[in-house]
Specification:
Strand content: under 5%
Shape: rod-shaped
Number of strands: 0
Radius of gyration: 28 Å
Helix content: over 70%
Distance between the termini: 92 Å
Largest sheet: none
């Protein structure tokens, strides 16, 4: 009977050790994954703000801002505000890059819509 109890205690200790090791491995890995996911969500939200800001600036300021400087400032301010609210530090260069990417996307879709409209008109 005593051998049986020793085996049970050994098995219990092995299980506890395995749980401790798994906890030590899994919890830090989960924290790392969660932090990365949260950061990705923040950057995605900032990217979406950049697109929205560029589209809004185009609609609101295009006629009164032929060189685009006021539109750039408008978009920069909105992106910077969103990043600060989310606790993300962005340089002016990073914000300008986001604005340029959103402008390129806007121009691509604008030209694509014009081309599509011309195709429909020609048929």
């Amino acid at each position: 009977m005593e051998v049986y109890h020793m085996k049970v205690e050994i098995i219990t200790l092995i299980i506890r050790l395995a749980i401790a090791v798994m906890t030590g491995i899994c919890i830090p890995a989960f924290r790392t994954w969660l932090k990365a996911k949260t950061e990705n969500e923040k950057y995605e939200q900032i990217r979406q703000t950049a697109e929205t800001a560029v589209y809004a600036a185009e609609q609101l300021l295009k006629k009164t801002d032929p060189d685009g400087e006021e539109r750039r400032k408008y978009a920069h301010r909105l992106i910077s505000t969103t990043a600060n609210r989310l606790g993300v530090a962005l340089t002016d260069g990073e914000i300008d890059s986001m604005i340029q990417a959103a402008v390129k996307e806007l121009n691509f879709y604008t030209h694509q819509e014009v081309a599509d409209a011309q195709t429909v008109d020609n048929h």
